[in-house]
Design brief:
520 residues; alpha/beta; Elongation Factor Tu (Ef-tu), domain 3; six-stranded antiparallel β-barrel; 40% helix; 19% strand
């Protein structure tokens, strides 16, 4: 009988899609749970003195006008805990993996206030994504909010999944939040996590396209609440939201059914507040409050490269940088198709490995200059200057260096050796296939030749004379073996004395035969 003191009974007045108008409640709070019987659950999203607006989260039986609605004065909470790692669940904390019921260590409210400024600490750790072009030129720190923008099918989800795969030995807990995605797309991510044994430190919160709009709306908040539990335990958490475009569509649908006035692109006026309040929950806590962190990678799908659309421009203004994936580069075979001219990280460079920071500092400008020179060279019909040919040659090698296959993250130690080899022009003595082979094998080669070197490099994270000497020795031995494997006639041919790196690119750029390029 004690529970009856905290319950109220209302009556359904009307139904508008996923919104139910209920009369008779004397006490209401936003986020309050409402039960309609037979397992149907809703949540209050608005009210006035006469009626309450309830968002349906789960409908097991059709709701009809005149049905009873039961309210308890408690907000929507979600189970959290270490035993959620390795599980797949929906926003109602119902398991989707067939592994039995979830076991929770605690219950957290999904609508929490962002941590105060005084409890936060400046970013001091780097998030190693394993993606060379990101770690080198668009670095991300733990506690950062880095937006991923791009057209459909440009590799946005791959950025998130590669980052998750690379956390196998870092201790970072990963949450993949799928909102409004097709079940087939979610199945591919699940299979990928199983293949790379990611479920040992990861979990998935999913509200697919077939889920009710209420579950799609809550999915990002549930994922964030679970992450906050681990952050309060002093752990680092990474969340990939895939994607915020579907979340905004869902909230627009809910708002229109609520009768709220539409604004630009028919989105409600509070869509900016909705996303910014959630984005601000990513942070790096100080030691007095656990020292944990939450890092966000929200994904936004744009149409035909339009960065000025309402939702993308809002999110760009509230995040710490953006990763823009170009459909043009993707069509040219650049993987990942990251546009270095429009991508930026506003805080990650402060926590970047000093070794990678020093080696990759000039690479971004060099790559952008190479793209310009390549574009200009296609317009010229005459002979090219030696300086332009050298820029084209070096740019072709750099392009191969920043290319990377999906599901193949590169350790930071290997990145240091790759960029060091480029700076010292060791890669300029190799052909393009040899450069690609070098990137795949150099980490294991260094581990076999000098195991202690990799450990020292990770501990120091910056180059000193001792480490540079070790790298020089490893590169010299590797290059010697590469030359030894080449055919004898190639070594004897004068035209091959300087390997013709990037000859395909140079041919297209200059319309010349490869021999004169090789002689330079």
């Amino acid at each position: 009988m004690a529970e009856l003191q905290y319950t109220e009974i209302g009556t359904v007045r009307c139904i508008r899609g996923c919104i139910v108008i209920v009369m008779g409640f004397k006490n209401c709070i936003n986020g309050q749970l409402i039960k309609f019987g037979y397992g149907t659950v809703g949540m209050i999203v608005g009210f006035d003195p006469e009626e309450a607006q309830v968002l349906i989260l789960k409908e097991t039986e059709k709701i009809k006008t005149g049905d009873q609605a039961i309210a308890t004065l408690e907000p929507f909470n979600t189970p959290v805990g270490n035993k959620l790692i390795g599980r797949i669940l929906n926003p109602l904390a119902e398991p989707l993996d067939g592994l039995g019921p979830l076991e929770a260590d605690a219950m957290y409210p999904i609508f929490r206030e962002a941590p105060p400024i005084l409890t936060r600490s400046p970013l001091c750790k780097t998030l190693e994504t394993g993606i060379k072009v990101l770690d080198a030129m668009i670095p991300v720190g733990l506690g950062q909010r880095e937006l991923i923008l791009g057209d459909k099918m440009t590799g946005k989800t791959t950025i998130v999944t590669d980052t998750v795969i690379n956390q196998r030995h870092t201790g970072v807990i990963c949450i993949y939040c799928s909102t409004g995605k097709a079940r087939s797309a979610l199945a591919r991510v699940v299979q990928l996590f199983q293949d790379y044994d990611c479920f040992k430190y990861s979990m998935i919160v999913s509200a697919t396209a077939s889920s009710p709009p209420g579950q799609q709306y809550l999915s990002v908040y549930v994922a964030c609440a679970i992450a906050e539990y681990f952050m309060h335990q002093g752990k680092d958490v990474f969340i990939g939201f895939d994607d915020f475009t579907k979340h905004a569509w869902c909230y627009r649908e809910i708002s229109l059914l609520l009768g709220r006035p539409p604004g630009r692109d028919s989105y409600p006026g509070d869509i900016f507040y909705l996303h910014s309040k959630m984005i601000e929950r990513a942070c790096f806590m100080d030691k007095e409050h656990g020292g944990g962190s939450i890092t966000f990678f929200p994904i936004v799908e744009i149409l035909e490269g339009d960065l000025t659309a309402f939702v993308p421009s809002n999110l760009v203004s509230m995040t710490d940088g953006q990763i823009y994936l170009s459909s043009t580069l993707f069509g040219e075979g650049q993987r990942p198709a990251l546009d270095l001219g429009l991508s930026v990280s506003r805080v990650g460079s402060k926590v970047q490995w000093p070794a990678i920071k020093n080696l990759s500092g000039p690479l971004r400008l060099e790559y952008l200059q190479y793209r310009e020179v390549l574009r200009m060279s296609k317009l010229k019909t005459g002979s090219q200057s030696e300086e332009m040919l050298q820029k084209l040659k070096s740019g072709a090698i750099l392009t191969e260096v920043i290319k990377q296959d999906k599901n193949a993250p590169v350790p930071s130690e290997a990145q240091v050796m790759i960029f060091y080899a480029f700076k010292k022009k060791v890669l300029h003595e190799m052909t393009i296939p040899e450069v690609n082979e070098f990137q795949l094998k150099i980490f294991e080669y260094a581990k076999a030749k000098n195991p202690g070197f990799l450990k020292m490099l990770r501990e120091r994270r910056k180059l000193d004379p001792e480490l540079e000497k070790a790298i020089d020795e490893i590169l010299a031995e590797y290059l010697k073996e590469v030359k030894a494997r080449r055919p004898v006639q190639e070594e004897d041919d004068d035209t091959k004395a300087v390997p013709n790196v990037g000859v395909d690119v140079l041919d297209k750029a200059t319309s010349k035969k490869p021999e004169p390029v090789a002689k330079t």
